[in-house]
Write a structure and sequence with these properties.
Blueprint (H helix, E strand, L loop, with lengths): L8 E2 L4 E6 L2 E6 L1 H7 L2 E5 L6 E2 L4 E7 L3 E5 L4 E6 L2 H4 L3 H4 L7 E5 L11 H9 L1
Antiparallel strand pairs: 1-2, 2-3, 3-9, 4-6, 5-8, 6-7, 8-9
Length: 126
């Protein structure tokens, strides 16, 4: 059973969002890291890059597959988790501690279109 954090928002592409003021902390869900298997490489954006909701902002590669990372909200990257460049397996260790990017949201209401924990649980059980 995959761990799902209450109080987070989730996209259909298995990214999670934790809202801290006007900043969205973004990572991939526990379910997604299980599906990928051992993550071996993280392709990450640069600080200052801007994305619209559902834009590809990077990718994760594992022994099984490569998976695009899609930005669940629009905004500008204000921080990138540089630890993942040298140790992408941290996502496998704890998908909710190993955030990928932090985005200053240009439209914070976009999180309302994402799933809450209960809806995401139902989504991955289908």
């Amino acid at each position: 059973m995959s761990k799902i954090n209450e109080g987070f928002f989730y996209s259909e592409d298995h990214e999670w969002v934790k809202v801290e003021g006007n900043v969205a902390v973004i990572g991939i869900s526990d379910y997604a890291q299980h599906e990928l298997g051992d993550i071996t490489y993280a392709d990450l954006p640069e600080e200052g890059d801007e994305f619209s909701a559902n834009d590809e902002f990077g990718a994760l590669e594992s022994v099984k597959a490569s998976s695009e990372l899609l930005c669940p909200v629009s905004g500008k990257v204000v921080e990138v988790n540089a630890e993942l460049e040298d140790a992408p397996e941290k996502i496998n260790d704890d998908a909710y501690e190993a955030w990928v990017i932090k985005v200053e949201m240009s439209d914070p209401s976009e999180v309302e279109s994402l799933m809450d924990a209960a809806a995401y649980k139902e989504y991955i059980e289908k």
